[in-house]
Amino acid sequence: MGILEVKDVGKRFGGLQALSDVNLSVAENTCHAIIGPNGAGKSTLLNCLVGKLIPDTGSVLFDGQSVLGRSPHEINQLGISRVFQTPEIFGDLTVMENMMIPLFAKRDGAYRLHAVKGMWSERALVEEAERMLDEVNMADKRNMHSASMSRGDKRRLEMAMCLVQDPKLLLLDEPTAGMARADTNNTIDLLKEIKEKRDITIAIIEHDMHVVFSLADRITVLAQGTPLVEDLPEKIKGHPKVREAYLGEAA
Ligand SMILES: Nc1ncnc2c1ncn2[C@@H]1O[C@H](COP(=O)(O)OP(=O)(O)OP(=O)(O)O)[C@@H](O)[C@H]1O
Questions:
Q1: Is residue 221 lining ligand 1, measured as CB closer than 6 Å?
Q2: Is there a smaller number of Cβ atoms within 10 Å at the N or the C end of the chain?
Q3: Ligand 1 centre from 223 Cα, in Å?
Q4: Domain of life, per the record (predicted)?
C-alpha cells in the first residue's frame, strides 16, 4: 500500500464532472508526477488531497488515515505540505523571519506572525532555521527582504519553509511555472537533493516535461478528470494514448 491512496474519487462543479473514478497510489519515498492537458483536473485533485476541496465520492488515505473532512491545517499536521504555484511567502519579512513562522507553528500549533519580533531569543529555533537555510543553499541570504529576491529564490525559500516542518509528503503545484530556464534547473537540482537526503515522498503537478522527466519515478496522466495511464516515465514518453490526449488539446 502506498503512503497516499486515492480511491474512486469524484468531484463535480455544477454541471461539470471535474474528477471521476480517480485511483492513485503513491509509493513511499518516490516522486510521482501527475500530468495532463489544461483542465484535466490536476489542481482539483491536489485540492482534494489538502482539504481545500471535499470530493463528492471516494476516499483519500494518507499513511493509513483518512484526510477527508479534516481542515488544511490538520492535514498539514499529518505530514502533508504543499508548495503553491505562486510562492506563499511574506514579502515584507526577511528570509530568516519567514523561516521562523512555520517553526513557531510546528512548536506551538499556530501561526504567530508577531512572534518573529522576539525570534532571536529562541536559540534552538533559530539554529533549526539556519540549518534548513544551509540545506537549501540560502544561508547567505538570511537577512534579505524576501520581496526583493528572484522567483527561483522565493521558491527555494518556500520549499525550505515547507521542509522545516518535516513533511512526509511534499505536494508541488507547478513548482517551476513562470521561471527562467536557469531557475528551473536550480529547482530540479534542489528537488533531487531533497529526494536523496530525506525520507520524503513527492507528488508533483507540472506542465514542463523537462522537469517531469528529470524527477519522476512514476507518472499518472489525467485527461478529462480520469487517469488515462500510469507507468514508468520511459513508458509514458510516446505512449499513443498520452499523445492523443495532448494532441486533442492542441486541436
Ligand atoms: N471552483 C471551480 N468551480 C467550477 N469549475 C471549476 C472549479 N475549479 C476547477 N473547475 C473546472 O474543473 C476542470 C478541472 O480544472 P483544474 O484546474 O483542476 O484542471 P488542471 O488540470 O489543473 O488545469 P491547468 O493545467 O490548466 O491548471 C476545469 O474545467 C475547470 O474549469
A1: no
A2: C
A3: 12
A4: Bacteria
